[in-house]
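Troubleshooting entry. Yesterday's outputs looked truncated, so today I'm pasting the complete records for two proteins to confirm everything comes through intact. If either block looks cut off, that's the bug. Protein one:
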Amino acid sequence: MKLDTFSSAGFDRGSSRTAEAAWLVLSGLLVASWLPGSGWRVRLLRAFGAQVGTGVVLKPGVRIKFPWRLRIGDHSWVGEDVWIDNLGEVTVADHVCISQGAYLCTGNHNWSRETFDLVVQSITVETGAWIGAKSIVGPGTRIQEGVVLTAGSVANGTLDCYTIYRGNKAVAVGQRRIAPATSD
């Protein structure tokens, strides 16, 4: 490859350079900071175009590339130091848990082309899924309803409903069964 021939000229950033610069400053100072609290993070994301549902928890250290390309459903949790590197759309449904240090990446490069072209694909995480700590979710991945991606695993492609995945490359290791809540 010849990196001097790379060009991102065709990439649509989805917002103005001014909005992107403002987001970089505010997210670096506030969203990714150690400061406690979630509500003000949600409001700031919404102010920059993210669609964020009710009851969403965003922990300190969260990094989000482009909030205008992010949708998070109701009652989902995003843990400390999660990085949502969303050059493309990232959709997180209701009741999803993304644990500490997980990395969701929508961009890659075409290593078979001399120009190392940028390739962007969306990520979808469906209702009730759990992405374990330090996991990586690659471009174009669809994590279906109820999936568990165990800590440190690497997901690409489609992960089937209510299945537990582990490893690099994440492979199915069992079925997820959820017991109903009991009263004590």
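Protein two, checking that the full record survives here as well:
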Amino acid sequence: MAIGTKIRVYHFCNEEFGLQNIKRSRLKVATIMDLNDPFEMMCLSSRDADQRRNILQLKKRVAEQFGMLCFSRTYVSPVQWGHYGNKHKGLCLGFDVDADRLHKVEYRRGRIKFDPEGYLKLTKDQKFEVMSRQLRIKHSEWAYEKEERQVFLLSSAVVDKNLYFKPFSEIGTLRQVIVGCNSELTRADIDGALGDRSSTIEKFKVRTAFETYKIVRNKKEDLWK
């Protein structure tokens, strides 16, 4: 992609934290050890117990330094709304983000056999790429998420009550606020959270599709008060 290319990506959240995110113009950073997949950074496999311990120690060291923001390239998955949008009662925030600041997750059916001898022969930059790739590999059963990630040093995040946050200004540009089909949030709730930005950001509610298993925009705007 050309330098400066933007990608629309989506971040799911429940209604409480979604409104807080909008009001405070920030997103909570995911720390590696708290992610919902225990295979994060565990795409390398080995039958050797010492090597497995070393791989786990690497994960822990990386987790102390790096965090991430997780996005999807789509908002139509009912599974994502169910898992991350509080059973379709939450929100989905659409951002335009520089493509070169995103890492597309690679979905694999099997793990990668670790080659310790080959690893030792790599340059420092090549070893860093091996580590970086581990941050963007997941099992193929997660492929429905169509995930894109922003990865960065935790030291660059804002700390609030032992949690890490990134301001919207360092993420991208908020373009859409999408309300779940089971949400009781009103237009006034969203407008109140957006404040002066309300007129410049697209807002709509979704519904279940009539003929497919997708979540789609409800074009009857008068049904959302």
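Both blocks look complete. Sanity check on protein two: The chain has one domain: 6-223.
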